[in-house]
Amino acid sequence: MEAQTIKATPVEGELQARRVPHRWRNLMVLTGVSIVDNTEAGLTSTIFPSIAQALKLNSGHLGLLAALGKIVAVPAGPAWTWLAGRIGRRNTLVLITLVGGLFGAAAGFAHDFTQLLIFNALMSAAMVGGVPISNAILADSFDDTNRGKAVGYFYGFISLISSFVGPLIALFTGLTDGWRYGMWTIGGICALAGLLVAALYRDPGVGAAEAQLADLSESKRHLSRVTFGSVLSIMKVPSFSLMMVSRLLSGHLLIAIFGIQFLVTERHFSNAVAATVLVPFGLSYFAGTVGGGWFLALLDRVIPHRGRVAYLQGAQVFFAVAAFFGTQFHYEGIGIYAVFWGLMGFGQGLNPSANRSIVAAVILPELRGQAFAIFLTIFETIGWALFSLGAGALATNLGIQTVFFWIMVVLMLINAAVLTGLYRCYPRDVARVTDTLERRREEALERG
Fold this sequence. Notes:
- This is MFS transporter.
- InterPro entries: MFS, MFS_dom, MFS_Efflux_Transporters, MFS_trans_sf.
- It is found in: Cell membrane.
- Pfam families: MFS_1 (PF07690).
- The chain has one domain (about 30-215, about 225-445): MFS general substrate transporter like domains (Growth Hormone, Chain: A, Up-down Bundle).
- Helix content is about 75%, strand content about 0%.
- It has helices spanning about 25-35, 50-55, 60-70, 75-85, 90-105, 115-125, 130-140, 145-170, 180-200, 230-235, 240-250, 255-265, 270-275, 280-300, 305-325, 335-350, 350-360, 370-400, 400-420, 420-445.
- The chain is globular and about 70 Å long.
- The protein starts with about 20 loop residues before the first helix and ends with a helix.
């Protein structure tokens, strides 16, 4: 699957496409870094019903567990991204996974909820760093035309692997204190991911996939120094600001936290049986991300820029409809729920290839890591924490089904409406980045 490097050495001054070496191998290695604490497919929530039974917990505790795990991402995400700029992205990813694995294993030894909460939060604080760094690496590895496809494969493989690993870990719940074996396994997955990064990952370099910079050496790309002021300037990009608002309204992410708990507490399936819906969810998510990435590339050719916006809006509406029919009615047997979880997985899978590509297209290469840190580990975290804490508290009194209706149906439709603003500002922001990169190229060629 490794993309072949073009052997001919490009002549500086000629604007030509270039395949970044090792890009597909890097993509596969990076999936392991994001499996455990990725918001699209978390593993800890899969075994929570058994943890709840062993430690006498409820949905409110699950909300707190998930929320704190995300709150720590607010300082941790940008901090890891800053560290990557100092010691290198490869070294940072190895450190992230080894530290995360250590705390994940420690969570398996927890004797009460407080200990579990602390160690799970520390694991999240470590693993969350892989999210913005991985997304920035993908943006440096694939040009804008192929970025949606790459992101689709990346998040598709994450969910696909999680959909099988999750039920396998859930099998431990049949044992006495089996959830502990589950947490130890999660810690082991983190450590294994770090070893794979150390052995196989090769950094492409910042801006390596940009047509204007690809044939220039990294020292000649005239990348601006990342400062506090330049990071703050990201917030002034209209499209990015609108995407951050949209992230606050992304209620579909709630299914990863409360989905299994909903099937156990309100539909009365066992933990192991309920976890089987993760398989169709993951397979459909994979289909949504990969198929969506290819469709997005086609749509970009037919309706440049604005096609991405329409696609992203459609994804919100599709998920809302699937969530309504999948969670607001009672069905007999796990099979019908598996079908609706598959539809929700497909709807959720449509998102990453579009929203990550939109963010990457409106931000300069050297600032993408921090942009993804803000987008995925700060603003997503704010919404995630509010959803988790609010949903956990409300679910105790109103039931998870009611919470799902307002957050995964109504709020998603509102999100689709908010995204309409991108039709106006997104094309302008893309043009601004393109003009800046072309100017840098001209300056580099003039300097020789």
